[in-house]
Amino acid sequence: MKSRHRQRLAHRSPIMTNNWPYPKWIAHRGAGILAPENTMAAFRLGASMGYRMFECDAKLSADGVIFLLHDASLERTTNGQGIGGDWNWSELSQLDAGSWHSPIYAGEPLATLKNLAQFCIANAYDLNIEIKPTPGLGVETGRRVAQMAHELWQSHPQKPLLSSFDIDALQSAQQTAPHLHRGLLLDVMRDDWIDIATQLECSAVVCNYKLWNAPRVASVHQAGMNALSYTVNEVDAVTHLLDLKTDGTFTDRVDLLKPSSP
Ligand code: G3P
Ligand code: MG
Known about the structure:
- By secondary structure, the protein is of the alpha/beta class.
- It has one domain (3-10, 22-251): TIM Barrel.
- The protein has helices at residues 3-9, 40-48, 89-92, 113-123, 138-152, 167-176, 193-199, 214-222, 235-243, and strands spanning 25-27, 53-60, 66-68, 126-131, 161-164, 182-186, 204-208, 226-230, 248-251.
- The two termini are 20 Å apart.
- The protein binds SN-glycerol-3-phosphate and magnesium ion.
- SN-glycerol-3-phosphate is lined by residues 28, 55, 57, 70, 130, 163, 185, 206, 230-231, 250.
């Protein structure tokens, strides 16, 4: 990467009105596509690349354990079959969540939110927990994730950010743990986006990065919230988002885009 870009990546936005505590760079699913997503191997690799904040996708097992999996179904990223949330953790914990990626990760297990919380707390890393409910379980998943996040980080000041595309899940998290930062995820723009984020008392709106433009960034800042972008893997897009004065970036390219030192 050119030195001009390195300097720009080290830039940090001014602190927003809502005491936003998080770094500007977030490793998506641990280490993007460089390791099997949402596994502890991925978070360790992301950390080894200098990242100090991670995003994960959290959902409920059939017996109520919060575990990390992006898709509703198991096929793409494990050797299991069917809907992940239909299985008990005792069964999910036996799956291979690494071989699909590459042989060096064969046998890598699925992770629980508790596994990742222990890693983050021990190393003073920040975490974004994306509430990714099995379809139909938004309210329950939002409530359980918020409750678990509250308990796991109870005696630690560096609290996780909760986010979701699922408005019911976010509302449930708001009611359960109102003190935790929340982010509204948007993949397509909607007219009432600021109203919804305001009602949910969000401190961030996390958009598909292609949705941001200057008026929208101004709107979210005027509402006292931060503008975050996913999933940004190209230097040119980063440059554009910095020019727009967005406040945080999720990336898969933990090898290319280096965060500034903490
Ligand atoms: O939280 C940002 C990003 O992870 C949202 O999209 O599909 O990668 O979970 P997705
Ligand atoms: Mg996600």
